[in-house]
Amino acid sequence: MIRIAIPIFQNRVSPILDTCTRLLIIDYEKSFEIGRQEVFCNNYSLPERFSLIQKIHPNVIICCGISDVFDRMLQTADIRLVCGIAGEVDKVAEAFSVIGSMNPAFACQDIETTDDCITNKDCAIVKQGSRNR
Questions:
Q1: How confident is the model at residue 96 (pLDDT cuts 50, 70, 90)?
Q2: 74 near 61, Cβ under 8 Å?
Q3: Domain that holds residue 9
Q4: What is the pLDDT of residues 51-86, one digit of tens each?
């Protein structure tokens, strides 16, 4: 089974994992969805958010952006992080379930790249790309 977590805002991938109010958790067996749930994390500090994610134990987190501080916290967990992704949550999840990675069509727009960071007017500095652990 594969479990993915996607921070959501309305029906889209939330701009920054650190400040999202909800996480969508989807379980897949092979490429078939076998369950989903929403977890609320409004007003959670980074340590509380980290603890919640550890309890959920996703294999993959798909997000648009993440701060360096939260990224360093998550590096201690056995979670694949896929950043720089935007779009409707259901379409992003479906694309991931089919190919097991993200299609470039879901990459964030209006982003400047410098080394391993991306910046845009809404997101401050966030990590980009996929980090396997």
A1: confident
A2: yes
A3: 2-131
A4: 999 999 999 999 999 999 999 999 899 888 888 888
**Separation of alpha carbons 118 and 97, rounded Å:** 25
Measure the CA–CA gap between 8 and 1, rounded to whole angstroms.
Answer: 22
Please count the structural domains in the chain: 1
State the pTM of this model. 0.76
**How many angstroms separate the CA atoms of 43 and 6, rounded?**
17
Adjacent-strand bridge partners of 119 = 112, 125
Q: What contacts 24+ positions apart, CB below 8 Å, involve 97-103?
A: 97/26, 97/28, 97/31, 97/32, 97/33, 98/31, 101/130, 102/62, 102/130
Q: Which of 67, 127, 129, 76 is nearest to 101 (CA)?
A: 129
The CATH number given to whatever domain includes residue 123 is 3.30.420.130
